[in-house]
Amino acid sequence: MSNDKTAAISSDQITRYQTLFNDRKDAKVVERAVSHQGILATSADFASDTDMTPVFSIELDTGKVANQKQSGRCWMFAALNTMRHHLADLFDLSDFELSQNYTNFWDKFEKANYFYQNVLNTADQPLTSRKVAFLMATPQQDGGQWDMLCAIIEKYGIVPKSVMPETYNSSKSSELNSTLNKKLRKDAVTLRDLTAKGASADEIAAARDKMLGEVYRLLCYTLGEPAQKFDFEYRDDDKNYHIDRGLTPKSFYDKYVGWNLTDYVSIINSPTSDKPYNKTYTVEMLGNVVGGREVKHLNVTMDDFKQLAIAQLKDGQSVWFGCDVGQSSDRQKGIMDTNTYKKNELLDMDLSMTKAERLDYGESLMTHAMVITGVDLVDGKPTKWKVENSWGEKVGTKGYFVMSDSWMEEYCYQVVVNKKYLTPELREAQAETPTVLAPWDPMGALA
């Protein structure tokens, strides 16, 4: 290992780098192009536009896209979209939406309680503990996982968007998140102090109850108070009038969606050495409902990953999925393709890493959830996938994106499918007790 003196950059090195740069015949040409237009625009490969033509051999009609606006609720929008697709088909309700604000309210409320539990669980650890630091970095946020939304629905049900519409704070969540996180950190101080002073379980429970009451009030102020009973009034696609009176959020879910959520399981592709295939994993301190459904992933090969998604699409049902959306994608065109940009050629350097290396070294993780609504099969093999996003209609093709199969292989990490599509071997593996991963594992990233 070099010592500090030999590792320091010398003036001779800088002179050599300058000479090497100026000896390149294309140096000034590339400098002018990149400095004026940026790396992405200069390295864009327009052949990708042709390859990603939005035509698919299997394509579901899922209506208009939703818009999460300035919030990080993609996982929630994507999950509720898969449910509304089903509801729309059953009840002839095009462009109908379920309330993302309703599930957002209960998710934030439950996340606060989950945070308090983790604070108490780690109260004997110093503030310098990595787990404590991890907790305090982001007490709660907009992001989440499929299993976390299932935990909310199983406890609270869902409602139509007309019953609990969006508010300023649901659509633009930064003010609410910063205020709520400030309160949760303040409450963490109190809970850790009570524990350090040897307070009784009843004293701690009373303090926690007061804190939760304040969280509820804050959420009511910012998101509105959730309905307990409501009437569902609508006209179907044939303009026939319907009204269903005296529903609760749980009875609405049972009647209008009716899925057994335990049938839907999370499948991941993480080719890192610490996660053998055909094994299940969960993540420490990841969740929202204390005592509710835990996050559980079955890790499979990419071939199995794709085949499970295709099987569900062939049955006419869309597929929730999680990915690293910022990698090699053009937001405005709605293209996600490994050939979107040719940075290696432009910069004359090798920037390639394997999927496992990107996960292990912090270059990639799941950042966004969307819905797969189609696939183009050529000679039985997928070449590209149709994706319903939740960024409104002004991007992509009226809000729909195209994902190349090679992009799926490199940057997709999770799909949710009905376990009936699993082979007997995979079904048996999925039922196993999961290995617990560290809180900061990339498979614990929230979409």
UniProtKB/TrEMBL annotation:
Record Pfam families = Peptidase_C1_2
Task: Show the CDD domains listed in the entry.
Answer: Peptidase_C1B
UniProtKB keywords:
Aminopeptidase, Hydrolase, Protease, Thiol protease
Enumerate the InterPro entries for this protein. Answer: Papain-like_cys_pep_sf, Pept_cys_AS, Pept_his_AS, Peptidase_C1B
The UniProt entry's coiled-coil ranges are none
Its principal location? cytoplasm
Subcellular location, record wording: Cytoplasm
Which SUPFAM superfamilies does the protein's record reference?
Answer: Cysteine proteinases
Q: Which family does it belong to?
A: Belongs to the peptidase C1 family.
Q: Can you name this protein?
A: Aminopeptidase
